[in-house]
Amino acid sequence: MAALRSLSWWIGVGLGCVALYAIVVASEWSLGGRLFPWFSGFLLLAAVAGHTVLGLARGVETDIEPEATDGGPVPRAWRLKVYGWLILLVVLVPLLGHLVAVPLFVFAFMAANGERLWLSAALAAATLAFLHFVLEGIVHVDLPRGLVTAWLG
Amino acid sequence: MGRFFQGGLVIDIGAAALDGFLLLFSAKALLYLMLGIFAGMFFGLVPGLSGLTGLGLLLPFAIGQPPDVAFAFLLGMFAVTTQTDTIPAVLIGVPGTAAANATYLDGFPMAKRGEAGRALSASYFANILGTLVSTVIFILFLPVLRALIDEFGAPEYFVMALLGLVMAGSLAGRSLLRGLAMAALGLLVSTVGFAQNTGFPRYDIGGWTYLWDGLPLVPLVLGMFAVPEVIDLLLRRGTIARASMRAEGGVAAGFLDNMRHWWLLFRCSVIGTVCGMIPGLGGLVAEWLGYGHAVNSAKDKSMFGKGDVRGVIAAESATSAQKPGSVLPTVAFGIPGNAAMAVMLGVFFIVGLRPGPEMMHEKLDLTFLMVWIVVVANLIAAGLCLGLQRWMILICFIRPTVLAPLILAFMVVGASLATTHVGDVVVFAAFGAFGYLCRRADWPRVPFIIGMVLGQLAEIYLFISVERYGFAFTYTRPIVILIELLIFAALAMPLYRRFLGSPARFAREAE
Lengths: 153, 511
Hints:
The complex is a heterodimer of chains A (153) and B (511).
Chain A: H1 7-26, H2 31-58, E1 68-69, E2 72-73, H3 76-96, H4 98-112, H5 117-138, H6 147-152
Antiparallel strand pairs in A: 1-2
Chain B: H1 7-23, H2 27-45, H3 51-62, H4 67-84, H5 86-91, H6 101-112, H7 116-149, H8 154-171, H9 176-190, E1 193-194, E2 201-202, H10 217-236, H11 251-260, H12 262-277, H13 282-297, H14 309-333, H15 339-350, H16 357-360, H17 364-392, H18 400-416, H19 422-441, H20 446-469, H21 473-476, H22 478-500, H23 503-510
Antiparallel strand pairs in B: 1-2
Helix pairs in contact in B: 1-17, 2-3, 2-4, 2-17, 3-4, 3-10, 3-15, 3-18, 4-15, 4-17, 6-7, 6-14, 7-11, 7-12, 7-14, 7-17, 8-9, 8-20, 8-22, 9-20, 10-18, 10-19, 12-13, 12-14, 13-14, 13-23, 14-17, 15-20
C-alpha cells in the first residue's frame, strides 16, 4: 500500500498515538483539568483518523522531494553528515555547556567542511567572546555549565 | 453607528495614535528598532533564511524588555525582511524569502534588461506605500472593532479563537485535515504544565519539573521554524549566488512607476491587508493574490513574466500591506494573522499584556505603536536599501559552511536563554526534528504555533464559559452562533480555494 511508504501518513499515525495518550492520561483529572486537553485531544484524534483512513483508501499526496542542489538531488552521504553535525551539537551542549560546546562546534564544523583554519578559529573565538563578554558579562545570563564541566568542577 | 463618529472617539484614537508614535522615539526603543532593522535586512537578504528564523533568534533578547522596546526590536526586524528579500530576487535571480517569488518573475527580467535599479526602487516604494495604505485601513477599522469587542464575553472569545484556528488550519497548507490536526496539536501542547484553573501539573512526563511552567516558546519556535531552514541552507552546500547584476540609478523611475500605477497599488494593498487579517494566509499568499490580480486585471498581459514593473508593484505592495493588517486581529481578538504574529502574541503574555478590550482602549497606544513600528521600519529600511544595495548583495556570496554553523550556534544559545535549563536544548532538538519532518512531509507548521499560543487564552475562555453558562453558550448567544457559522464557512474554504485556483496557476499564467 502506497500510504505505508509515506512519511506524511506515518506522521498522522504518530500524532494519533499522541492524541490517544493525551486523552487517556487526562481521564484521571478533574473536569476543570481535563476539559481542554480532551477538547484538543479529541479534535486531534478526529483529524488524524480522517487523514489515516483517507490515506489508506485514496493514497497520500507525495512527500516533498528532497532539496536539490545545482548538481541534482542532495547526496545521501552529505545529508547524513549534516544530520550528524546537528545531533553532535545538541549532545555536546548539555555535556560541555554552551561556553565550550558552541565555539568548539563552530570551529570543528567549519574546519571539517573545507573552510580555512584561521577563519574557523577566528569565528570560533568571536563566538566565545560574544558568549563570555556580552551574554555573561554585560547581559548577566547564567549559561548552563554542562555535565562534564560541572563534574570537573 | 452614530457613536463611531463622535468627536470624543476621534480624539481618543488620535491621542492614542500620537502617544504610540512618541513611544517609538524613546532612545532605547529607537536603538532596538535600528538593531532589529539591521537584523531583519540580513535575514531577508540571505536566501533560505526568513523573518521567522530571525524572530526566533532575537526573541530571547527581547524578553525582559518593556513592551515598547520588545515590539520595536521584533516587529522592526520582521517588518523589513520583505524589503531586502527583493534584492537577491532582482540582482541574482534567487528570492531572499518565499515572499519574493512573484517579485522575481518580473524583477529579474527587468534586471537582465538593465533596469535593476528601477525594479528595486519600484519595490521599495511599493513596500512603503502598501504599508501606508494598510495603516489607513487599520485606523478606519478601529472604531468598528472597538464597538464590536465591547459586546464580547468569554464564550465569544472562545469561539473566535476556534475560528482563528480553523482558518489557520484550513488555509495554511494543502490539506485541511493536516492543518486542523496541527492546530489541535498546538492546543494540546499548550496544556503542558500547571493547569491555570486547578493548579495541577499536566503531562509532566513522570514529574519532570521543567515542564511544570509549560513548554517555553523560544526553543519551540526556533526548533519548529529555524532548524528546518538552516538544514536546507546546509544541504544546498555551494554558494547561493554566483554572479550579480548591477543596480544603479532608477530611483525616480521606480517612484514614478508607483505613482503611474497608484490604483493597482491601492487594490493590491487592500488585498494584502485582508490577507493579513485572515489567519493562515500570510505574505506568500498575499503576494501571489496581488500578482494574480495584476495579471488578471491588466488589459495588456503580454509583458508579465518578461519584466513588467506592474508585477513588482503588485506583489510588493500586497506583501507589505499584510503586516499592519495582521496586527488588528491579534490585538483585538487574540487571533494571530500569521506565525510571526503568533510569536508576538506569545510576547504579549510574557510582558503581561492581554489582547482584547485592554489593547483597544487603555493600551491603544501600544496597539498603534506596533503599526508605527512597521511603517517607520519600512521607511528606514527603504532608505538604507537604496544607499547600500550594491554592498548588501555581497552577503549572498557567503558560503553556507560559514553562515550555517554560526546561525546554529546562536540558535542553541538563544533557545537556552528561555530558562537557562538544559531542558531548553531538549525541547529545541525535539521540535527541530519534528519541524523538519513536518516540512519534508508537507504538514503545515503555522497552525501548530498559532494553536499553541491561542491555547493559553482559549482554555481560560472555555472554562469560564462552561462554568458560567454550561454548554448552552454554544447555541444561546447570537454572536457565538454567527461565529460558529463562520467556522463552518472556514471549513468549506479549501473547496472554495480549489475553485479559485492555486497560486501556482498565477505563476504559470505569468510565465
